[in-house]
Amino acid sequence: MEPGKYLQVAVVGVGGVGTQVVEQLIANPIYGFQLVALTSSKRMLQPTKDLCINPIAWKDALNASETPVDLSAVTSTLQELVKQGKKAVFIDNTSSQDVAEMYPALLSAGINVITPNKKAFSGEAGLYQAIVQASRSGRYLHESTVGAGLPIISTLRDLVETGDKVVKIEGVFSGTMSYIFNNFSAVEGSDESFSSIVKGARAQGYTEPNPADDLNGADVARKLTILARIIPELKDEQGNFPLLHGYQSVETTSLIQDAPASAVSNGDEFMKWLPEQDAHFSQMREQAAKEGSVLRYVGVVDVKNKVVKAELAKYPKTHPFATSLGGSDNIIMFHTERYGKRPLIVQGAGAGNDVTAMGVVSDILKLIRP
Amino acid sequence: MEPGKYLQVAVVGVGGVGTQVVEQLIANPIYGFQLVALTSSKRMLQPTKDLCINPIAWKDALNASETPVDLSAVTSTLQELVKQGKKAVFIDNTSSQDVAEMYPALLSAGINVITPNKKAFSGEAGLYQAIVQASRSGRYLHESTVGAGLPIISTLRDLVETGDKVVKIEGVFSGTMSYIFNNFSAVEGSDESFSSIVKGARAQGYTEPNPADDLNGADVARKLTILARIIPELKDEQGNFPLLHGYQSVETTSLIQDAPASAVSNGDEFMKWLPEQDAHFSQMREQAAKEGSVLRYVGVVDVKNKVVKAELAKYPKTHPFATSLGGSDNIIMFHTERYGKRPLIVQGAGAGNDVTAMGVVSDILKLIRP
């Protein structure tokens, strides 16, 4: 490819995922990319007319930069490149609502947007609809918002756009919830307490700093909203989605609804409070075991009955959610008209910087493959 | 989209899969397509300058056509459209070696090629290398050559092109073999004879007209060749693939190696001969059961040890190949550096006209999404 035809890439956010995105782009054996902007939360690097960002020493250069972050300057740079007939993409590796709100303007200017940031696709309907509208000019891709690098959104879009009808999507969408219940309610039995397993998960870095942010089910509700909005049968007659208020419209079972405010706002306080819930969870585990079942925190998009819910449910010990799952796997089952008797299943690690970055970079490859 | 910008589509072969491809294209709610050629094995339909192929009555029109098939005329039509700056694709829904040998010339002329036909990608190296060479001008996509509509090839390409290292791919790649062994060697036990299960599968249309063509393992060997050729670590120092002679280089266990020539060439003769093998298969099933295992016909691409093999193997009753599989499911596990402890798994129906056509049409969507 001629250097002038390289995809022009602005990377916003170089934390765990963002750093991996840059490394995977640089290491790509096939395609050429031109990095035109890099921003951390504090600093920014933009090339002058004569200077490209050094693909080897980019992080040192960024850390040494004295330019404060200016996302409107990044936008202008990309806009200029689009005007020159080049293909440009804005990669949002943050989890910021403010950055998410930039997407409609970026897309309208013909700039493509790729992101693992769930905010725009799971939040209020206005922003989401503005993005869909603006996508006539630029393209938005967000594979890693659900299942990280697993092919979930691309598979759902392929099913829908080739004319299949989704009947139900059912899965374990949170790596943290997966880990906790795979261990707490194992097929072969377990007697460790709930709080002890959460403590272990937190110590290994499998949870948010405050596990309350996993156990409230909001992350699962956000992912369900993202998927539900791709399914045409869930639109109402006005073309709006019933999930008008985003993930807050999802029927969500919080596992910590009785937690005091002090525990919800502070991880250490939360861990002190959690053992109070152990008897309650143990009782649910025993009840499930009596029925030959295990507990799994699942998400369901039931198209037929127009129900979208995140809940703690019982599954027989012979069900794939019991037999196949391990570690912090995600598993997603697509029940459709074509995949009728037997669902299409995708399974694997659904969190981690490297696999999340893989989802981002595979979206970038969709823009650049000849 | 302006009508002039529609993707120009020539569909070659309108059997079970081809018919579904046309129907899915016509029904697509989002994108526009222009059908510029349709061919059956005997007849052909090409529009004159003023006449488009009728998307409703296309099959009647094709059956009524008096134009004999002329694939060089189809090529010329597409070539002309490419010269006019239009995007064109040649869809090969046949399983013909002759049609496969057209790909390099089509690609060189800037015509994209999409196909579920395994011949070109699993056959001798010369044709495959010519295709890869010619793909600088046109793009070739063949998702449905492995796992039908399941995202197998796209997932493998995403893993490889984002810099992951494949350690091993292991799976049940044949829907027919899956059905036969899921029933013959079920987790809960089974005492039905091998020939009786094959007879039932044949009666339900789950096998080739002669089941010998499934049981010889060649179909699995072809799929393994297709996957192995996507993995850079399996190239030798000259950039050639060790699978130089295509699928015939794969270590393949035929389940019917003792069959007489008359049975290999005639399905009814084959079914008469097969019961002679029942004692042999029953003995293997018993041996596996004694070890707490089931029999599965699997394919393995072991990158680390550079072994590619199709074989009948024993798996513990707790393994996903035993617990998760049912019907005529395919299941494919990608063990990679990133998906290290726990593999990325894709599972679901791996055969059928509708899901195979879905794989073809999802490849077409990759060309046309804005």
From TrEMBL, chains A, B:
NADP(+) binds at residues 13-18. Pfam families: Homoserine_dh, NAD_binding_3. NADPH binds at residues 94, 118. The keyword Mitochondrion does not apply. Its EC number is 1.1.1.3. InterPro entries: Asp/hSer_DH_NAD-bd, Bifunc_Aspkin/hSer_DH, HDH_cat, HDH_CS, HDH_short, NAD(P)-bd_dom_sf. The active site is at 223 (proton donor). It catalyses: L-homoserine + NADP(+) = L-aspartate 4-semialdehyde + NADPH + H(+). It is an enzyme of class 1 (oxidoreductase). L-homoserine binds at residue 208. Residues 13-137 form the Aspartate/homoserine dehydrogenase NAD-binding domain. Its cofactor is a metal cation. PANTHER family: HOMOSERINE DEHYDROGENASE, PTHR43070. This is Homoserine dehydrogenase. It comes from Suillus fuscotomentosus.
